[in-house]
UniProtKB/TrEMBL annotation:
Any single Pfam family the record assigns to this protein: HpcH_HpaI
InterPro entries: Aldolase/citrate-lyase_domain (IPR005000), HpcH-HpaI_aldolase (IPR050251), Pyrv/PenolPyrv_kinase-like_dom (IPR015813), Pyrv_kinase-like_dom_sf (IPR040442)
GO cellular component entries: cytoplasm
HpcH/HpaI aldolase/citrate lyase domain residues: 29-249
Keyword list, A-Z: Lyase, Metal-binding
SUPFAM superfamilies: Phosphoenolpyruvate/pyruvate domain (SSF51621)
Signal peptide feature range: none
Molecular functions per Gene Ontology: aldehyde-lyase activity; metal ion binding
Similarity annotation: Belongs to the HpcH/HpaI aldolase family.
Gene3D superfamilies reported for this sequence: Phosphoenolpyruvate-binding domains (3.20.20.60)
The protein's name in its UniProt record: HpcH/HpaI aldolase/citrate lyase domain-containing protein
């Protein structure tokens, strides 16, 4: 009897491995399951759920991950530390990718891979009926092989020292890509917020060159509004970015709404004053 075939839905991974440019929405505040469907309807293939800079709990995370997996949006989770129990618990919750901040050394990245991958690549502990497999009963050996391949381990490069190690990071078996933390990188370079500075641009060029050489995808974080730079980096070989965040999208919409109503209020008050003046003038001539 032939073995059943098992697959994982990870549209974001599929696209970036084909070299396609892919948008990823960052989520910090809007944690209801509805946001996964909204992202799907908006044509967004990946959701970056940020545990590093938020108070998102593991339970909240697991529910949003499950919603993402069921609607077909890849849940990409930035974990809050390099601890093995953060890696394993978040992967066991169904993450399609884990992003690990502030990776500084080759040994650090090798240890991360060991904690995030099953043997023979690593030492991740086994568990069955996993959310990313839609809670299907998958034979352990097949499950472990499948998840080693299909779920992604993505260290972040955020310092000048890590930039110089990009080739070595990409060369580690089990590293599935790199995400650049632009704001921390610029800050460490002494040029906070200066995305047009040659120090930043040269650093990005080095990382992209290393990724293209290794045949592994590169993401760019922190400069979502700078579509001009992102398109340039995509032309060079990067494939995804943290394209927009729930907080900034909401704030922009609310600011626009507030501005429109302030303008309406100004026009209405002016109109009322004009009407009063006209009425007073008419009464004066009566």
């Amino acid at each position: 009897m032939s073995q059943p075939s098992f697959t994982i839905s990870n549209p974001w991974r599929d696209r970036i491995l084909r070299g396609e440019v892919c948008s990823v929405m960052s989520v910090k505040y809007v944690l209801g399951n509805e946001i996964a469907m909204m992202a799907k309807m908006a044509g967004i293939d990946g959701m970056f759920i940020d545990m590093e800079h938020t108070s998102i709990t593991t339970r909240e995370l697991s529910q949003l991950i499950t919603a993402c997996n069921y609607v077909g949006v890849s849940p990409i989770v930035r974990i809050p530390s390099k601890a093995h129990w953060h890696l394993s618990r978040i992967l066991d919750a169904g993450a399609a990718a884990v992003v690990i901040p502030h990776c500084e050394t080759v040994e650090q990245v090798k240890e991360i891979v060991k904690d995030a991958k099953y043997a023979p690549l690593g030492r991740r502990g086994c568990t069955n009926n996993q959310p990313i497999l839609n809670f299907q009963a998958v034979p352990t050996q097949l499950q472990n092989q499948l998840l080693n391949t299909e779920t992604m381990v993505i260290p972040m490069i955020e310092t000048p020292g890590a930039v110089e190690l990009a080739d070595e990071f990409f060369a580690i078996e089990g590293v599935d890509g790199i995400l650049v933390g632009s704001n921390d990188l610029c800050t460490d370079l002494g040029i906070p917020g200066q995305y047009d500075n040659p120090l930043y641009l040269d650093s990005i060029a080095k990382i992209i060159k290393a990724g293209v050489k290794a045949g592994k995808p590169i993401g760019i974080g922190g400069i979502g509004p700078r579509l001009d730079l992102l398109e340039k980096f995509f032309e060079m070989g990067a494939t995804w970015s943290l394209s927009g965040a729930d907080g900034s999208m909401l704030q922009a919409g609310m600011t626009n709404l507030g501005k429109k109503y302030a303008e309406i209020n100004s026009r209405v008050l002016s109109s009322r004053e004009a009407a009063k003046s006209t009425k007073a003038e008419a009464n004066g001539h009566a």
